[in-house]
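Structure Section — protein described below
Tokens — whole-number codes for backbone shape
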Amino acid sequence: MSAKKIDTSHKSEVRIAITNVASDLSFESALSATEIKIAVSKAITSGSPLELTDLRGHEIIVPADKIGYVEVGEPAARRVGFGAL
């Protein structure tokens, strides 16, 4: 039995708050944090929708004028066992 090893070199965790919506969007993207920042900046300055893709291939499209904030970071390592807090 072999286990697939996922390449996490460019994986980023993204959280987008949308104005007038109580919850935010959270997903993991294969893009680097720098690539996401560039896409967000481009969308806000041009007024075009922010278009990102998550790891499963789903497209996330948010109107630029509805973006509250975007948080980008490295995904947390998943811990297993009694010491995982």
Q: What stands out?
A: Residues 1-6 have pLDDT under 50 and may be disordered. The longest strand covers residues 12-18.
